[in-house]
Amino acid sequence: MNIIYFIQSFLKTFFQIRKDNKIYELKEYYTDLNLIPLYNWWQCDQGDLSYLWHKKESYIPAFFKIIFHQMTFQFDYLDLELLRKYTEANYYENKYLATKDIKYKRKADTRKAEVEKLKQDKTETNQKLNDIIWQVQKELKLTWQIDPLKISAGYFFNLINQIRNGNN
Question: Could you give the number of structural domains in the chain?
């Protein structure tokens, strides 16, 4: 029974990898923040990575998570506080496991609580896309309407940076 399960698992993984490799080679998905429409980026940020496809598909290859994270680091301005706290929490957790020193456990727990608070704050302040577009248009006094299906996420974030830098 175990050998059959092993063979089934192996074949499933093998064919999954082959399918993902073929998809990877076709390049029918977004990999650049300056090419992905704002609406698609927003949906990916909300957790639906199927919007990385040029034409929406239901299948999501495993490497889409990597692509999305790589695109996240294409920002000119990026707040890395959440990532830093998460890394510190893991560091102290590993330090505690290695030394069994309770002070590292406390530090890890503190960082984990800070991570959860930052996540909660992000969720609470998470506005609707149309509200953010409206605010950008208002701040920059744009005479044209921003279409989230046509404007790239990269260009839109450059507009936000203009507001931050006071260049409106």
Answer: 2
Give yes or no for a contact between 114 and 85, defined as CB atoms under 8 angstroms apart.
yes
- The answer to whether the beta carbons of residues 88 and 109 sit under 8 Å apart is no
pLDDT tens track of the chain, all 168 residues? 577 777 777 666 765 666 666 665 667 778 888 888 999 888 888 888 888 877 777 777 777 788 887 777 766 555 566 777 778 888 888 888 889 999 999 999 998 898 888 777 655 445 688 888 888 888 888 888 888 889 998 888 888 888 877 765
**Shared domain check, 67 and 23:** yes
| Cα–Cα dist 27/53, whole Å | 9
3-state helix vs strand vs coil in the chain, percent to 5: 65, 0, 30
Other C-beta atoms closer than 10 Å to the C-beta of 42 total: 19
Residue 145 located in a structural domain: no
